[in-house]
Amino acid sequence: MARRLRAGQHPAPEPIRATSMWRVDQIFLARHGQRIEVICSLVNDQGGLRNLNIVAPTSDPVKAVRHAARHVAGKGNVYGARQARLRWAREQLVTEQDELIRDRDLEDEFLDEFEETLAAVRDQMR
Questions:
Q1: DSSP readout, 21-68?
Q2: CATH class name, domain 22-89+98-125
Q3: What letter would DSSP give residue 69?
Q4: What is the DSSP letter of 68?
Q5: Which one is predicted more confidently, 117 or 100?
Q6: What pLDDT score was predicted for residue 124?
């Protein structure tokens, strides 16, 4: 039996379960002092949506993206990141036009590291 929610309450988010396979859909970067936060938006086949936030211990965007890719691919239930779009978060933008600009070089860095880590995880499981 489902619990009734009071006005203003939101249902608790479902955990990211191993029984549900996810893929990376979008990636957002935001600077926080000497670190970069990488927010990975994950989707699954049932229409679920989750965000994973990873704060990389670096101010270098390439290293931050690679750090996040290793973390996400190592979870074991994220199967892909192809066609994931990468943008800087809204707070980092100078103009509204910046919101539309994708960083394809960083997308490639993320995908390369994700695929390498995923292959290593699969090799360990064999």
A1: -EEEEEEEEEEETTEEEEEEEEEETTS-EEEEEEEES-S-HHHHHHHH
A2: alpha beta
A3: H
A4: H
A5: 117
A6: 82
